[in-house]
Amino acid sequence: MVAIIWGFIFGAFLQYARLNRFDTIAGMAVLQNFTVAKMISFTIGLGALLLQAEVYFGWAEYHVKPLILFGVVVGGLLFGVGMAILGYCPGTVVISLGQGNLDALFGIVGGVCGALIFAVLYPHMAPMLGPDLGALSVRSLLPDNVSFWTVSVALAIVFMGIALFLQHLQPQGWKWLHAAIGLSLLNVVLNLPSAAGHPMGASTAFAYAAMSLTGMGAETYWQKIAKPGAWELWFLVGAFLAGLFFSLFQRTFRITSVPDLWTRYYGSHPARRFVWAFIGGFLLLFGARMAGGCTSGHVISGGMQLAISSLLFAIVVFAAFLTTGRYFYRARSGIPVLSSPRVIRTNEMKAG
CB within 8 A of 340, min separation 6: which ones? Predict the structure, then answer.
């Protein structure tokens, strides 16, 4: 029940700022919507200051993911490609399902399949994921407090500055900022031993569900993911319930098959969208399992810890994400890929 409650809060923040929507996430892939980038950047910046202070005073511990180089880089590439095609993350896809988006369901099925294939192949893939360079972070690289806090504060300012700069380029209200502050505080609370004792995450739940449902996968991998996977599964149940509850409360619940932005580029045929959602979900979760985390568990949670593996993963993910957006979502409707919402509205008016 506690994990469900935390997941409900997580889902509420994302649903409030519409950060779980396909049009928001895929809109970032074609540089038409910067909401996701603003939220993630500010969350990492503010959260880094709060979490470093929390650990410094002895209230919590670090949970830095090791820098397993090949897994992080190749997994990040697959994750970025999958996120652009699917238009959801492992955490946001369940929220969107709760709001009635059927393409999210096919993304979840694809994700479960991708996680299961990785679990089956794990004994063969584990030796190839390295080299393992250890749990590197700014704290481990700069043990001196003065140097550590100087670099940490500077990085936090840079991350928050990037978010505010993007807001200046594309003013979209401040709901993303409210969500960023909420997610930063949520992750800080989750790190407290009395709350959860570890940061938020989502992708391990897919591997846990896949192995639980099928009984397949390597025993060594099950021992590695069973405990965090069970917690994350209930966490995602809470996120799903948040999407369902708030969409019903706001009377926005709709059974839909094809998001608006997808229709603009690929048409309104549900079968095509469902097939690509499955493929995107498969790549997303296979990549997440290779890298050892996802947007919430690696980019945000690891970024707040200033973990080298997580910062590298974030760079690779966004590079693959934007590259895929540039070539996968071609301007089939006559709308330039690199355009602002104002340009889009103008083009739509001309077309009308």
Answer: 32, 170
Q: How would DSSP label each residue in 176-233?
A: HHHHHHHHHHHHHHHTSTTTTSS----HHHHHHHHHHHH--S-HHHHHHHHHHHHHHH
Q: Helices 203-214 and 219-249 sit at what angle, rounded to 10 degrees?
A: 110
Q: What does the pLDDT profile of the chain (352 residues) look like in tens digits?
A: 899 999 999 999 999 999 999 999 999 999 999 999 999 999 999 999 999 999 999 999 999 999 999 999 999 999 999 999 999 999 999 999 999 999 999 999 999 999 999 999 999 999 999 899 999 999 999 989 999 999 999 999 999 999 999 999 999 899 999 999 999 999 999 999 988 888 999 999 999 999 999 999 999 999 999 999 999 999 999 999 999 999 999 999 999 999 999 999 999 999 999 999 999 999 999 999 999 999 999 999 999 999 999 999 999 999 999 999 999 997 554 444 444 444 334 343 333 3
Task: Specify the amino acid at residue 78.
Answer: L
| Structure token digits, residue 173 | 């209200």
Quick one: which of 67, 275, 56, 92 has its CA closest to 183? 92
Q: How many whole angstroms separate alpha carbon 75 and alpha carbon 92?
A: 19
Q: What whole-number distance in Å separates Cα of residue 330 and Cα of residue 243?
A: 30
Can you give the C-alpha Rg of the chain in angstroms?
19
State the Cα torsion 258-262-268-269 to the nearest 10°. -80
| Among 75, 294, 310, CA closest to 204 | 294
The pTM (predicted TM-score) of the whole model is 0.90
Distance, CA of 318 to CA of 244 (rounded, Å): 29
Q: Report the chain's terminal Cα–Cα distance, integer Å.
A: 50
Render the burial of 258-287: b for 16+ CB within 10 Å, e for the rest.
bbebbebbbeeeeeebbebbbbbbbbbbbb
Q: Which of 178, 204, 18, 209 is nearest to 99 (CA)?
A: 18
